[in-house]
Design a protein that fits this description.
By secondary structure, the protein is an alpha+beta fold. It has 5 helices and 6 strands. It has a 3-stranded antiparallel β-sheet, with no helix packed on it. A 3-stranded mixed β-sheet has the order 5-4-6. Helix 1 packs across helix 2, helix 1 packs across helix 4 and helix 3 packs antiparallel against helix 4. It is elongated, with a radius of gyration of 22 Å.
Length: 150
């Protein structure tokens, strides 16, 4: 790792520990030339499958899009950030099947719906009302009756 201050290539690690979220390593380094210290972060590179959208286009999986969906559905709801992060982690585990190279966006939507249903009924209805594209009010009413019954 090159020193960000002087560009020298020899920057031994002085200290290593887990970062706050336990998903990456935090390393303190010291340049052997200018002796300045700096911090680097290291995390595993994970290859997620490509997401196939409704129109057939393919895009890279982005965790932040999933986080945005949860935040929108859970807006002003009493659900902790830790529960949301754990739900997203569970979804990502299901996407990390070695033989899976592509995943339809609808499959990701189904996984989100399942997690929201366990977390918060209002958020579940919010997300499902957009995701499932109900044709008419009767179809939506039947869905709500089903939610009430469970």
């Amino acid at each position: 790792m090159k020193c960000p201050f002087c560009g020298h290539a020899d920057t031994p690690v002085v200290e290593t520990r887990l970062a706050d979220d336990d998903t990456q390593l935090r390393r303190r380094r010291k340049c052997s030339k200018c002796e300045r210290r700096f911090t680097t972060y290291e995390r595993p590179e994970i290859s997620f499958p490509m997401v196939v959208k409704k129109d057939g286009s393919r895009v890279e999986y982005e965790r932040r899009k999933l986080e945005g969906s949860f935040q929108l559905a859970l807006r002003k709801r009493p659900v902790s950030a830790e529960l949301v992060a754990a739900a997203i982690d569970r979804i990502e585990e299901k996407l990390l099947v070695p033989s899976l190279r592509e995943v339809p966006s609808s499959r990701i939507g189904q996984l989100v719906i399942r997690e929201l249903k366990k977390m918060d009924k209002v958020a579940y209805v919010r997300f499902a009302s957009v995701y499932q594209s109900f044709e008419d009010i009767d179809e939506f009413k039947a869905f709500l009756d089903d939610v009430k019954g469970s």
